[in-house]
Amino acid sequence: MRVLAAMSGGVDSAVAAARAVDAGHEVVGVHLALSAKPGTLRTGSRGCCTIEDSHDARRAADLLEIPFYVWDFAERFTEEVVETFVGEYAAGRTPNPCVTCNEKIKFEALLDKAMALGFDAVCTGHYARLSVEDGVPQLRRSADEGKDQSYVLASLTPEQLRHSMFPLGDSRKSDVRAEAERRGLAVANKPDSHDICFIPDGDTKKFLESRLGSTPGELVDAETGAVLGRHSGVHGFTVGQRKGLGIEAPAADGRPRYVLSLEPVSGTVKVGSAKDLGVREIQADRPVWPDLPLAEPTECVAQVRAHGGTAPAVAEVVNGQVSIRLEESLHGVAPGQVVVLYRTDDEGDLVLGSAKIASTTAA
């Protein structure tokens, strides 16, 4: 097959490309330039898509003796990922930009261009597995549960999965680094990137304020209605947040307060105790099904964050929306997050589908 290897400049994508070469595919490497003004150096383990990263990707491609190109997707990334991120926060929702990037950039824009150029598949360094049942691709958790990235890939359509390759799905991260060392790849010990790639200093609140400015509102006790303070915008908060609330006086019981809900129209941020964060029902829209939609109530595991936030559940489709009843309460579940549904079979954890959280019901 003709395979386009997306090479970020990290160890995972380099080893994934190497394995595609070993498998006998005709491989071409490509680095995506996602910023019009990329930094020249990474800040510790934060950030990605820097000039240094593109150089690392090129060096890996040279070692593998494969052609290498840099494709400019900066404008598309800004429109699809950055502006969506800002808009969701302004609306009082909590987005996951990695999900958006995989959906709109790596497996829409990139895959579409790859197909137009005659490639058969796009290869990435994601930790996830693919299997095929009755000709339908099935997305599964990786063998390394601590690095599993099936959550951020769960919005991919069956057609996109059909043209995807995840060579690291059966590997553990430690083994991948050891393999990179054996292959002589200079990125073998390069630190992983963390946080949001387009906010390399990790200060999301400052980034959002630079885009949205100040939209003052009140911090309100959800139980008593008492005004506890003021803030510069709901975009500075997310459901489940405890630190940085700017409330001087402690709660009556002396325990911390948490953000329970955001009301962007009125600018109200409601806060309360940890016990009020529990959620037992989730309503989600815009579902994506790797196969067919759920035809009846289905036992599964619901996951609401990329790492953690899982609970046994029963999910069903009601009027096009996904209704999820959790058997155990989850905390810090926010509208705008993605919920992914899994079911375990003989081959491991299978992704049944994903959807955007629209609303929740307290425990």
UniProtKB/TrEMBL annotation:
Residues of the tRNA-specific 2-thiouridylase MnmA-like central domain: 205-272
Keyword Ligase attributed: no
Annotated EC: 2.8.1.13
Compartmental location: Cytoplasm
A Gene Ontology biological process term: tRNA wobble position uridine thiolation
Pfam families hit by this protein: tRNA_Me_trans, tRNA_Me_trans_C, tRNA_Me_trans_M
Chain residues that bind ATP: A6, M7, S8, G9, G10, V11, D12, S13, L32, G125
GO molecular function: ATP binding; methyltransferase activity; tRNA binding; tRNA-uridine 2-sulfurtransferase activity
tRNA-specific 2-thiouridylase MnmA-like C-terminal domain span: 280-357
Gene Ontology CC entries for this record: cytoplasm
Residues of the site described as Interaction with tRNA: H126, Q337
Start and end residues of each stretch annotated as Interaction with tRNA: 147-149
Catalytic activity: S-sulfanyl-L-cysteinyl-[protein] + uridine(34) in tRNA + AH2 + ATP = 2-thiouridine(34) in tRNA + L-cysteinyl-[protein] + A + AMP + diphosphate + H(+)
Residues the record marks as active site: C101 (nucleophile), C197 (cysteine persulfide intermediate)
Function field: Catalyzes the 2-thiolation of uridine at the wobble position (U34) of tRNA, leading to the formation of s(2)U34.
Protein name: tRNA-specific 2-thiouridylase MnmA
Gene source species: Amycolatopsis marina
